[in-house]
Specification:
- The protein has one domain: Protein Transport Mog1p, Chain A (3-Layer(aba) Sandwich), CATH 3.40.1000.
- Helices cover 37% and strands 26% of the residues.
- It has 6 helices and 7 strands, in the order ααββααββαβββα.
- Strands 1, 2, 3, 4, 5, 6 and 7 form a 7-stranded antiparallel β-sheet that branches.
- The longest helix has 24 residues.
Length: 190
């Protein structure tokens, strides 16, 4: 009887060890998702630092925590992953919020952009012409600027708050950085 229990204990210990090793060898998608490579590091855009860690959402439950009520809409439009990252500029007290929606395909990103921007005039702003394939830049409130664009399978929203033209300049700087990052990543991400 003791031998049977000892053999059983060894089998259980080996099973637990195997499961532990297998779990440790599988990278956590929240740490390895290529979306994380798109966002600027601290100080990459002068004076701006991340406020907290990036948040990745892959399903309705997690997405609902950040865009209450609209999560089903974005998922129906083809979103498969959404990244949220906040930035602060301590010297100016400016704030930036980045949202990057990875869509099933580029056409989904274009359709989402067109649906969201319906009725808004196209941005003819010289400063935004290098951003994405389609873009819209607007001052939503005094000191609040919103940039939305799509590029390949990505829909991007950058919202900036700050004094005077600081928010507008920051939104454009982040948008340009994201455009270049998406272009470098190209079709490697799906």
């Amino acid at each position: 009887m003791k031998r049977a229990l000892s053999a059983c204990a060894i089998v259980v210990a080996l099973s637990v060890a195997t499961l532990t090793i297998a779990a440790e060898s599988q990278p956590d998608p929240l740490l390895t998702d290529p979306l994380l490579s798109l966002i600027p590091q601290d100080g990459e855009i002068e004076g701006w630092v991340r406020d907290g860690t990036a948040v990745l959402c892959y399903d309705e439950a997690s997405l609902s925590e950040y865009i209450d009520g609209a999560a089903p809409y974005y998922l129906e439009q083809g979103a498969v992953a959404v990244l949220f990252q906040y930035y602060l500029h301590p010297a100016t007290r400016g704030e930036i919020k980045i949202e990057i929606y990875r869509m099933r395909e580029g056409d989904s990103a274009r359709r989402l952009f067109q649906e969201i921007e319906r009725g808004k005039p196209a941005s003819g702003d010289q400063d935004s012409r290098e951003l994405g394939e389609g873009r819209h830049l607007e001052q939503a409130l005094r000191g609040v600027w919103i940039l939305e664009f799509y590029q390949g399978p990505f829909f991007v929203r950058v919202e900036g708050r700050g004094e005077g033209k600081q928010a507008r300049g920051a939104v454009l700087a982040f948008g340009l950085r994201l455009t270049h990052s998406i272009g470098q990543l190209g079709s490697k991400i799906r």
